[in-house]
Description:
With 176 residues, the chain is of the alpha+beta class. 40% of the residues lie in helices and 12% in strands. It folds into two domains: 4-52, no CATH class; 59-169, no CATH class. The N and C termini lie far apart (41 Å).
Amino acid sequence: xxxxxxxxxxxxxxxxxxxxxxxxxxxxxxxxxxxxxxxxxxxxxxxxxxxxxxxxxxxxxxxxxxxxxxxxxxxxxxxxxxxxxxxxxxxxxxxxxxxxxxxxxxxxxxxxxxxxxxxxxxxxxxxxxxxxxxxxxxxxxxxxxxxxxxxxxxxxxxxxxxxxxxxxxxxxxxxx
Length: 176
């Protein structure tokens, strides 16, 4: 993880753009990539825009995240942002790990349900991004872990996700 990831911010007062290179461990986590230094040109603290190149999800980053409740990859919609088919193996590995905090396991369960939701056709979705094989694979894996829907906090799973994902897994919708 020695690659540097580009981060920039634009001063709202003078329009100057500051840039820096940050490690994957800083770039990956919302709390660590916050950039609080003042504008290098005028000293203003206010920023009009900013951005960062994000690293791919790796086992090393997941190990850090899974053991620290104060870290998130994304402040909002973390489950939706992590729900990529190429992350399935990592998501399942850390869902099954006893070293993963319960709160993070709940987020991983929600993320896997998002993957099902996003890959099951419904009347409102454009079918071009649907991959039913992904939905079937994830549903099959979660069927093997059905007890997690009782053990973990499922309140992180949005109701609209549950309505489409739960029937695929065999989890009752009653009392969602």
